[in-house]
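re: that chain from earlier
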Amino acid sequence: MLIWARTDSPIYRPLIQDMRLVDSVEIVDVLDQEGIRYYSDVKNHMLYVDQAKSDLARVALAKKGFVIEYPEITKHSDLNTAYDEFIKQQEEKELNGQIWEQPTFLPLVKLVMGALVIIVLILAVVRPMLRQFLLDEEDE
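^ sequence. v structure.
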């Protein structure tokens, strides 16, 4: 449980559902320039990005004219229109977003699970050992 809570391996989230519908080379170039981790599932034609940097990836792609709201992708020739649409989608998402979709939810769950494990350990192991130790001293 503690090892799971401490893992810093990135969690990947789908960015593009069907890479055949877009210029995937241009999108991957943008991700490489921004230093965003990604991997592509060639069999299912999907592109995944690091969840922590998914908003950064979408902003970088909006600067190039690609507005991505999974699974929908819109290509704009006017960059200002693309960026305005992206900002509008972000504001709507923040207003309607669920708590488990927030980026701080999973680290918080890991922290709470670790605290629960420690409390159970104290109550189940340490407390009976101390009681036994104190009772043995009183008997002597």
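The helical segments are 2-6, 24-34, 54-63, 79-96, 105-139.
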